[in-house]
Write a structure and sequence with these properties.
The protein is an alpha/beta fold and 311 residues long. It folds into two domains: 157 residues, Response regulator (Rossmann fold, 3-Layer(aba) Sandwich), CATH 3.40.50.2300; 131 residues, Response regulator (Rossmann fold), CATH 3.40.50. It is 45% helix and 19% strand. It has ten helices and twelve strands. The strands form three sheets. A six-stranded parallel beta sheet has the order 2-1-3-4-5-11, with helices on both faces. Helix 6 links the parallel strand 6 and strand 7. Helix 1 packs parallel to helix 10. Its main location: other. It is found in: Cell envelope. Belongs to the bacterial solute-binding protein 2 family. This is ABC transporter substrate-binding protein. InterPro entries: Peripla_BP_I (IPR028082), SBP_2_dom (IPR025997).
Length: 311
Amino acid sequence: MKKTLIATTALIGLCAGPALAETIGISIPAATHGWAGALNFHAERTVERLKAANPDLDFVLTTTSDPGQQVSDLEDMVATRNIDALVVLPFESEPLTAPVQRIAESGVWVTVVDRGLSQEGIENLYVAGDNDSFGRTAGKYFADTLEEGAKVVVMRGIASTVDNERVAGFQAALEGSGIEVLAMDHANWNRDNAFNLMQDYLSRFPEIDAVWAADDDQAVGALAAIEQAGREGEMIVVGGAGMKEMVDRIRNGDKAVPVNVTYPPSMISTAIEMTALGLTGAAPMSGEFILTSELITPENADKFYFEDSPY
């Protein structure tokens, strides 16, 4: 995947610019939590890089903390900036579907990121992470490294399709491994909820070999509860999404956090780069582009560590 992104960036820098300036609008959620903060970080870095490489491309980037404001931002982009392409991560799918559809029908190239619209076929390009792969990658790591009979507890996220897909992938990877899942409860992708849930698991189960936190904020909460209970060294914790703190632990050989699973906020960079290529005609970019999750290990952790990232 990294080679693909490098090749894409190189193409943008080498292709001849369009005869007339083209404008790409980018609308994403505000940095209200860690993953969204990293999304903003990568979007801003990508815009800076592409503007330097392509003087004939212009960008307008807006962030929003509610769907109503996002709709207003999109309308303003069309009315006052006359955008030629739009990259949008919908704050919510349903309220954004009709506004984005109207923009697409006006002839604007549309790329949707991560959260799909409630109607299929509106966008030219869809870029997202692979939730089945996210769960399956963690489950395969457990199946490959834990002994038969190992005991695992699971922290689910918010009850949703995304959570269901992740859990289904995890369970599929464990089939036939002999690993025992002691409990599987929701912590809502929240570190405080995860702390409380981990306290409950620790009181209920005297033996736990591994925790699948299914999210890095949940992993932070789980690790805090384990430390408070004085049970460090008894179990490993595997989260997901590549939070800087988790990746740094892996780089430094923390035995409690041996690996992580990517669900990269840098997918926004992929979406912006591919939209720029499609807009300039340098390469055909349409359909779906799904980023399969990767396992972050001590051997490759450096390439997933971004010192300046807020996440």
